[in-house]
Amino acid sequence: MRILVTGGAGYIGSHTLLQLLREQHDVLVFDNFSNSSPEALKRVKQLANADFEVCEGDIQDSVRLSDAFGTFKPEAVIHFAGLKAVGESNEKPLEYYAQNVSGSIELLKAMERHDCKRIVFSSSATVYGEAKYLPYDEQHPLQPTNPYGRTKHFIEEIIRDWAASYRGASAVLLRYFNPVGADASGRIGEDPNDIPNNLVPYISQVAVGRLKHLNVFGNDYDTRDGTGERDYIHVEDLARAHLAAINFTGETTGCEAINIGTGQGATVLEMVNAFESASGRSVAYKIGPRRDGDVARSLAAVRKAEKLLGWKAQLNIDDMCSSTWNWQFTNPNGYTQK
């Protein structure tokens, strides 16, 4: 299948790209490299022993998008591209709405112009907001608590309306919980351009000596140890979910929202302990105030993914921590080799 992947050089995009190539799909990566590295694509080519096309561009650029669609003629799209930091979204909401929402509209317009009717969208569990009940199932009310989550919510609604209006269209909205881990090779992994916004890469950079300590945002939540609890999902499992979702779009029309998680939770301090065990390193941390927009607990109901996609998470927290450490230890400066 010919698949266009926006944001394919990013963390989740690169791992999904590797899986797509191993399944012998033809791929075009469309990425502006604002929070990713071309080095990741070079390494994916080596790991897969397969080539693919790359187009550097921004999804807000309708001309660049149209050129890419016209040349490559994709049968389906996997849409990762977008800004993704919760804290930053509170500081720069207009940038998030422009890049994420407006960019997604331009992408859908390009799909219509070139008669491409299948899309898998990288959504997020942040669309749920504060839990009315746990675990979150796909019928839970959508009340995101920060601009980042609201961009995901709005894009979901836009795709839902698009799929309803465009005859034969098929869309899957994958609501990720907390992706962590790295490819077993240790050659690709999460490499934020600046100080990490997500927990596990922050922990790993403390363990490898790039950062002095982890900031723990709040220890007064209603959880086992007072720190936030999350449902962590290994990025390799998440990549497999995208392949299952792309296959599903070929079997149905309309739009489905599907959670991708494990159904199990771990607190911040439990993840610190698991990482210390996996790495053999001590991880210093400091407790600070809660961060705006964070929720106490986030756990996924995952039956729908198993039922519709035939997908289920296979890797656990130990796998997540050991693979992250393998990536970080062998690439202490990420894709930038100093």
Structural summary, described in words:
The protein is α/β, with parallel strands linked by helices and 338 residues long. The strands form 4 sheets. Strands 3-2-1-4-5-6-11 form a 7-stranded parallel β-sheet, sandwiched between helices. β5, α6 and β6 form a beta-alpha-beta unit.
Write the layout of secondary structure elements.
Blueprint (H helix, E strand, L loop, with lengths): L1 E5 L4 H12 L3 E6 L6 H11 L4 E4 L5 H11 L3 E4 L6 H6 L1 H21 L4 E7 L22 H19 L4 E7 L1 E3 L18 H10 L5 E4 L11 E2 L1 E3 H15 L4 E7 L5 E2 H12 L5 E4 L8 E2 L4 H7 L7 H14 L8
Parallel strand pairs: 1-2, 1-4, 2-3, 4-5, 5-6, 6-11, 7-10, 8-13, 9-14
Antiparallel strand pairs: 9-12
Helix pairs in contact: 1-2, 1-8, 3-5, 5-6, 7-9, 7-11, 9-11
- Report the sheet with the most strands, covering strand number, pairing sense and barrel closure: 7 strands, parallel
Give the class from helix and strand content and strand pairing: alpha/beta
Tell me the span between the first and last alpha carbons: 38 Å
What is the subunit arrangement here?
single chain
Supply Rg.
Answer: 19 Å
Low-pLDDT sequence parts: none
Quick one: CATH class of the domain at 2-182 and 232-263 and 298-314? Alpha Beta
The amount of helix comes to 40-55%
Give me the count of strands: 14
What is the chain-wise order of helices and strands? EHEHEHEHHEHEEHEEEHEEHEEHH
- The CATH architecture designation of the domain at 2-182 and 232-263 and 298-314 is 3-Layer(aba) Sandwich
CATH homologous superfamily of the domain at 2-182 and 232-263 and 298-314 - what is it?
A: NAD(P)-binding Rossmann-like Domain
Which term fits the overall shape?
globular
